[in-house]
Amino acid sequence: MFTPVALAFAVVAATASVYAQTLPDNCARTYVVQPGDFCDGISAAQNASTFQLANVNKFIDPLCDNLQPGETLCLGITGQDCTVTTVVAEGSSCVDIANTAGTSLDTLLANNPNVDENCSNIYPGEVLCTAKEVIVGST
Ligand SMILES: *[C@@H]1O[C@H](CO)[C@@H](O)[C@H](O)[C@H]1NC(C)=O
Ligand SMILES: *[C@@H]1O[C@H](CO)[C@@H](O)[C@H](O)[C@H]1NC(C)=O
Predict the structure, then answer these.
(1) What is the pTM of this model?
(2) Nearest by Cα to 31 from 102, 65, 87, 81
(3) Residue with the nearest Cα to atom 12 of ligand 1?
(4) In terms of Cα–Cα distance, which of 125, 104, 126 is closest to 115?
(5) Which of 27, 48, 50, 120 has the least C-beta neighbours within 10 A?
(6) What distance in angstroms lies between residue 30's CA and the mean position of ligand 1's atoms?
(7) What is the tens place of the pLDDT at every residue in 62-81?
(8) Whether 133 contacts 107, CB under 8 Å
(9) Which atom of ligand 2 is least distant from the CA of 120?
């Protein structure tokens, strides 16, 4: 059981490192992956939302299990780089998060296109952009 999983992981990782060499030209800031990093941990420490990290680095798979220590990620695109973030706490709602951050629910939803209109899909540890103005584009 261990071997096929390890083999599959190696194939995915090899693919990822090819794409990881190509950073966007308009990358505002970068981060070098450290051993043991996981996406939401990087997002929380670097103030780059869960959506933004995934959207800018499309080679990262949905489970975030293909990060390679030493590879460089882009944390945000110039002009669309939200650096004001909040880590979702257990039991908190989008309204709570928006109020605490001093922003509106509409701005919160616009800045986090991965969050559904009812805010029913956020999870503890997710990192949201909580800027007071709309920063994040959808592409
Ligand atoms: C992230 O934001 C917090 C709060 O503003 C700040 O204290 C911290 O230095 C920021 N970290 C980075 C890596 O920008
Ligand atoms: C949001 O809530 C409304 C009303 O309950 C429902 O009709 C809609 O399907 C919900 N949307 C999502 C994305 O959950």
Answers:
(1) 0.84
(2) 81
(3) 46
(4) 126
(5) 120
(6) 15
(7) 999 999 999 999 999 999 99
(8) yes
(9) 14
